[in-house]
Structure formats: C-alpha cells, structure tokens
Amino acid sequence: VDIDWEYPSGTETSGNPRDWCVSDKMRTTVYANYLDLMKLLREKLDAASSQDDKKYFLTAAVSASSWVLGGMGLGEYCQYLDFANLMTYDLYGAW
C-alpha cells in the first residue's frame, strides 16, 4: 500500500482556499488522523502477513520541505513504514 496524501499538515495555508471554511475546523486533527491511519494500516498488513506468510509493504510519498510539512512531527509516521519516497521537488516549489 502506497500513501500519497498531499499533505497531512496543519499549516494555515495548506489546502484549497475555497475549502478553508470547512478545513480550518479540522486542521488541528489532520496529522493525528494521518498517524492513526498509518498505524491501523500497519497493524492490518502485519495481521494479513501472519495469516498467509506474505510480506505486505506500507510506503508513503512524503515531502522533504519543512515548510510543507508544517505541523507534522518529523518522522513519527516512519515507524509504520517499510520505506518513504521523498518528494524533493517541494524544496523549491513548482515554479
């Protein structure tokens, strides 16, 4: 399973401005929910692996930019991953 959630951060400028009336209320819980999702996926994949003796990978595409990461704790989610793909293009933007 590869997760590409851009981006589970709590910065005040993340997301679509047209959605801020909804997203601002949820912004403080986004990263906690991301951690819960990663933990649950890891548990379910490990349980499936113990039943059929196959290895199931959990990976994620994550930003390399501290600005984009905003309120995300550095590396907390990594304990659940088999590996992470760094999106280094975020370091300097799309321009």
Automatic annotation (TrEMBL):
<keyword id="KW-0378">Hydrolase</keyword>
<dbReference type="GO" id="GO:0005975">
    <property type="term" value="P:carbohydrate metabolic process"/>
</dbReference>
<dbReference type="InterPro" id="IPR017853">
    <property type="entry name" value="GH"/>
</dbReference>
<protein>
    <submittedName>
        <fullName>Family 18 glycoside hydrolase</fullName>
    </submittedName>
</protein>
<dbReference type="GO" id="GO:0016787">
    <property type="term" value="F:hydrolase activity"/>
</dbReference>
<feature type="domain" description="GH18">
    <location>
        <begin position="1"/>
        <end position="95"/>
    </location>
</feature>
<dbReference type="Pfam" id="PF00704">
    <property type="entry name" value="Glyco_hydro_18"/>
</dbReference>
<dbReference type="InterPro" id="IPR050314">
    <property type="entry name" value="Glycosyl_Hydrlase_18"/>
</dbReference>
<dbReference type="InterPro" id="IPR001223">
    <property type="entry name" value="Glyco_hydro18_cat"/>
</dbReference>
